[in-house]
Amino acid sequence: MAIKYSVLDLATIIKGDNLSQTFDKSVRAAQKAEELGFTRYWFSEHHNMPNVASAATSLLIGHVASQTKTLRIGSGGIMLPNHSTLSVAEQFGTLEALYPNRIDLGLGRAPGTDMLTASILRRGQLDNNYNFEFHIQELRQYLSLENKNSKVRAIPGEGADVPLYMLGSSTDSAFLAAKLGLPYAFAAHFAPSQMEVAFEIYEEHFQPSEVLDKPYKMACINIIAADTVEEAHYLSTSHFQAFVNILTDQRQPLLPPEETQLGDMSNELAVHLNRMSAKTFVGDKELLEKKLSDFVKLNKVDEIIVSGHIYDFAAKLHSYEIATEVLKVL
After folding, report:
1. CA torsion, points 62, 216, 196, 39, in degrees to nearest 10?
2. pTM for the complete prediction?
3. If we measure between CA atoms, which residue out of 78, 140, 139 comes closest to residue 109?
């Protein structure tokens, strides 16, 4: 049986676009993903980033869900420490009522921003010992019908059939996903180093639940595809420049390939870039068929989540087309 394939969208702001144009491109990209047979289209929660417009994640999910018909729309993910579990239950309960059986709730514990911004989001309550498991269970309680006799209820939210997904970029999340019996999505698109070990931990320690009877592994990777290898590498320079900007803390809108400056980086920066982009796949259909087939066979993933920054919107949609041709037969 072929693996599923999905999209992670950061609502990336490209040079020359305003926010309305950015959101419009997310809608059109989701519509293209739906047409191509992608399973889900997720938005990630980030804050205080000049190149990322997905801060109000649930609002963006609702907007894109209203402009699509069958595609599952969700979070990849909501950073739970930034919110009360009651408000998350209410927001996603509302989304589920508006778009039944189409909403996903991926959960992470990272701040999705710098620590100063995280402190503001959390009203100064930065807790290094945040009990992620407790708050996931609290969220589950609000979403359950069993909560109807509680003094505090999530309305909307109570009884909402919103599937939960555990997100992670380290082995800590693997242990928790296994313990709770939840699907596990690893953020290999920017933090690939622990992916193999995390997947091994998840499989070894997995406890069947009412959600899953066996592990379900999702790998988020970058795919930048074009008709030729040369064109794909040209398009990928925007993506790698965005990574360099993260590493050097020089955030800015996504640059076109001709404005990137990758030729004069230090050896130390190049090493960090190579580590960060280890699960970035660039090429034409033929090259990607081999690379992605090897990746899926080696890691035995159930679903690929496609990420990747491409400046030219038409080229981005064409990259989705090529990726679909490859992924649907893996």
Report:
1. -40
2. 0.96
3. 78
What span, in angstroms and rounded, lies between the C-alpha atoms of 115 and 117?
A: 5
Task: Tell me, rounded to whole angstroms, the distance of Cα 206 from its chain centroid.
Answer: 22
Residue 222, in any domain of the structure: yes
User: CB–CB of 10/44 below 8 Å?
Assistant: yes
pLDDT tens, residue by residue, 89-111:
999 999 999 999 999 999 999 88
Number of compact structural domains in the chain: 1
What CA–CA distance (Å, rounded) separates 130 from 242? 30
- Say if strands 72-79 and 40-43 run parallel, antiparallel, or are unpaired: parallel
Residue 31: give the domain boundaries.
Answer: 4-231+280-327
Q: Which of 254, 225, 222 is nearest to 22 (CA)?
A: 254
223 DSSP assignment: E
Q: Is residue 105 in some structural domain?
A: yes
Closest-CA residue to 71 (of 107, 106, 42): 42
Cα 170 to Cα 167: distance, rounded to the nearest angstrom: 9
Are 142 and 158 contacting, i.e. CB atoms less than 8 angstroms apart?
A: yes
Q: Which of 22, 21, 26 is nearest to 9 (CA)?
A: 26
Give the domain CATH number at 201.
Answer: 3.20.20.30
Give residues with Cβ within 8 angstroms of 77, minimum separation 6.
42, 44, 45, 105, 106, 107, 108, 165, 167, 185
Radius of gyration of the chain (CA): 19
- Which one-letter amino acid corresponds to residue 138? E
Between CA 244 and CA 274 the distance in angstroms is 10
Predicted local confidence at residue 215, as pLDDT:
98
Q: For residues 215 and 206, is the Cβ–Cβ distance under 8 A?
A: yes
Q: State pLDDT tens for residues 276-302.
A: 999 999 999 999 999 999 999 999 999
